[in-house]
Amino acid sequence: MSLRHRSPNPAVLVLVLLVALLATACREKPKRPEEVAFVQGLSPDEIEAQHPLTDSARAELTPENVETLSQWELDQLYARLTAGPIPDGPYQGRFFFAEGGGPRKLSEALGGISGRILDVKLEKLDRLGEALWKGKVFYKSDRLLRNMIDNEEVVSDLFGVSPDRLRREEIGGREVALLFPAELYCGESLFDPRRESVIIDYADTDQIDGYVEEIDHLAGRDSLAIRDEIRIVRPGFYLGRAYARERLLLTFTLYQEEAAAPGGVPVEECRTGVEPPPPTPAGDAENPVV
C-alpha cells in the first residue's frame, strides 16, 4: 500500500535553499589550475600525447578549482585520466554545471527527454542535489554504491516518504541517509572509449536492497536511466560525469581525505587502453613470418 503523498513544507525548503545559497556566496572563488594545459581543437589522443598530466599538475587540481573549468576543458582533463582503483568507503561530493556544458539545471537538461510529466519530480531532484547531496559511499567488495543525503526530514517533505523507510549509516561520526543504490564496475566510458572508467550504474537500482521506490526509481532504467562514470585525478580524488539516457548532465567530484593523505601512484583495476605489445612471432627481422 502506497503512503499518502505529503506536500513539501515551504518553510523547510526555503530554509534549506537559503543555507545552500549563503554557503555558495561565502565560498571564495578558487584560482584556475595553472599547470594543466588546455588547447582547443585537439582530440583525446592528441591532448594526451602533447600535454600529459604531470605529478605537479595533478597535485594542483582540487575539487574546488576544477569547477572553474569550462566543459571542453573538463573533457580534455578527463581524457588524460585513467580509472585507477575502484574506490572504497565514503567520498565527499560536489557537483556543478560547467560553462558550455548545456542547461544549468537538471530539470532543464531532462525536460526534452522525460516530458512534462516529470517536471515536478525533476525540480525536487534539483533541490535534493543542490542542498542535500553529500557524496557517495562505495562498497567495493559488494560492487555496490549508495548516495549520501543529509537532512532526512527535508527528503521526507520533498517526496512524501517516512524517514523510517530510509536506509541510514554512520559516516564520519554522524548519521546520514543512503539513497539511489547502484551497481559498481569497470566499463566503457561514454565520452572516451579508448579506456575504461569506473561505472556507477542505476539501471537495476530496484533490484538492490534498500530501494525506496518513491525516490530511487527516478534514477532507474524506466525513468532517467542515470549512469555515472569516474576517473582518478590522484589518490582520494575522482572526477565524474553523470549521464541520463546517455546524455551528459553534469560534472561532479569525489574526495576522501583519508585516501588522499598517503599519496602515491594509483593501482589500475580497469582497462587503461595501454595494452602490452603482441608477442613476437617465430623468426627474426631478416626472415619474418608471413
Topology readout:
Layout: H1 10-26, H2 44-50, H3 55-60, H4 71-79, E1 89-96, H5 106-114, H6 119-131, E2 133-139, E3 144-149, H7 152-159, E4 167-171, E5 174-188, E6 196-201, H8 213-216, E7 226-234, E8 237-244, E9 247-255, H9 257-260
Antiparallel strand pairs: 1-2, 1-9, 2-3, 3-5, 4-5, 5-6, 6-7, 7-8, 8-9
Helix pairs in contact: 5-6
Describe the structure.
There is one protein chain. With 290 residues, this protein is of the alpha+beta class. The chain has a domain at 84-260. It is built from nine helices and nine strands. The protein has helices at residues 10-26, 44-50, 55-60, 71-79, 106-114, 119-131, 152-159, 213-216, 257-260, and strands spanning 89-96, 133-139, 144-149, 167-171, 174-188, 196-201, 226-234, 237-244, 247-255. An eight-stranded antiparallel β-barrel has the order 1-2-3-5-6-7-8-9. A hairpin with a 2-residue loop joins strand 4 and strand 5 (174-188). Helix 5 runs antiparallel to helix 6 (119-131). The longest helix is centred in the first third of the chain and has 17 residues, at 10-26. The radius of gyration is 21 Å and the shape is globular. The model is unreliable at 1-25, 112-120 and 283-290 (pLDDT under 50).
